[in-house]
Structure formats: C-alpha cells, structure tokens
Amino acid sequence: MQSKAPSVSSWGWKEPVRIALGTFACSGIKAHMGGDIEAAVDAALLHYTQGLKSGRAPIELPHFCRREVDPQDAEVTLDLTVDPECEELLEREAARQGSTVSRLANHAVLIYLAELDFLAAARPQLGVGGI
To answer: Which helix or strand (DSSP H or E) is residue 104 part of?
Structure first.
C-alpha cells in the first residue's frame, strides 16, 4: 500500500502532525507549565528545533522509547501544525534517528520537561537556611 503524501497549503504548511502524549508527559506539563498542553508542546518543539539549528547535538531518542505512544493509550492526542522550517528540521532529525516526527516530538517534550526540572532545582531557595 502506498502512503499518501501530505497536502501542502498555499502558505507552505503541511497537514498537522499527530502527537500522542502519555500520562508521564502530561503530568510533567501540568506540573511545570499549567494546563495548556498544546502551548507546552509548541514550546518544547521550538526549543528542540532551535537547538538543532544552532548545531547543538540533540539528546538521542533512547532505543527503548522508539515505539509510538498508542493513541488509544494516550492521555492526550494533539493534531499540531508547525511552521515549515520547524517541520523540516523535525522530519530530518526523525529520519536520522530512525523514528517518526510524532515520536521525536514526544521525546522533545520529555527533554524540555527535564531541562525545566533541572533549572527549577538549580535555583537557590531564597529565605531558606539564612540566605
């Protein structure tokens, strides 16, 4: 069976990318960024692709995480449209890592959450211990 090529609008935008997020990713988004899951995924993808554009080597997708989150098992499934440059970077990186854009997007969310968690832990707690 031949796959259908994504349609491209007059603006150059392709059809949305389906991203299924599990409970772990969603709980991290809610804890660090509130309830706007779509905005959090957008921020994570922007952060990840800016790293790719800067030449910074991305954290590789772990081999044990190369399986897609099944949309039936997902806590949230988004159909997200990203700008053409971001989409091209994600497609290229997903192909390089032998994955899909959807799986790479899920990975980018987890990386972003880990970085937010690290930054939150690194901040000194003002008023604690005589500081």
So the answer is: helix 101-122
